[in-house]
UniProtKB/TrEMBL annotation:
Domain called Cupin type-2: residue spans: 91-157
Pfam families according to UniProt: Cupin_2 (PF07883)
Organism whose genome encodes this protein: Mycena albidolilacea
Name used for this protein in its record: Cupin type-2 domain-containing protein
Length: 181
């Protein structure tokens, strides 16, 4: 997927350090990389950084021993979120940008690392989150807005969850067109 021309982001690259074990069981670093950005869509100006993915819980964390090499599940999954495992990502929000209105079938823990973002729910309810604030997103329709003139960065851990059931109807993953300003 091609990336759009971005306004210059002032944040440092997202570095990922992953630990593991040697064949004798000693601790070691299996990866120390700068993660390349990807985008939800070709017209998005907000990069995301896939940091870790597990396809199941409890997670298998010994592939370097059982398979003779570290297996990085983040490179080999088509899903946005792991239905039965976990996903760890960083998102950057350009000044004045916003995400599509969406719902994922997941329990997401978010932390604002830099800047300020607005969480907007489908009924228009809005909550401004600032540096250090956290959000626990429980499968609701929402969008993210950066209403400032500065970049913002958030980190999320997403865990597979059971769909919310309302009156016998399960609320599924849903992505709508980009929200309006």
């Amino acid at each position: 997927m091609s990336s759009p021309t971005l306004p210059k982001c002032p944040f440092p690259d997202v570095r990922r350090v992953v630990t593991g074990h040697t064949p004798t069981g000693k601790s070691t670093v299996v990866a120390d990389t700068i993660q390349p950005p990807t985008f939800w869509s070709p017209d998005s100006v907000n990069p995301k950084f896939d940091l870790y993915y597990t396809g199941s819980a409890p997670a298998s964390i010994d592939s370097e021993i059982t398979q003779g090499k570290w297996v990085d599940e983040i490179t080999d999954h088509p899903e946005i979120l792991s239905a039965d495992g976990s996903t760890f990502r960083a998102f950057e929000f350009a000044p004045g940008s916003f995400s599509p209105l969406h719902r994922t079938v997941s329990l997401d823990y978010g932390i604002v690392a830099k800047g300020s973002v607005v969480l907007e729910l489908e009924d228009g309810e809005r909550v401004t989150l600032n540096e250090g604030d956290t959000v626990i997103q429980r499968g609701t329709m929402h969008c993210w807005r950066n209403e400032t003139a500065e970049w913002a960065r958030m980190y999320f851990v997403g865990l597979g969850a059971k769909p919310v059931n309302v009156g016998g109807k399960e609320l599924e993953e849903e992505w709508q067109k980009a929200a309006k300003n």
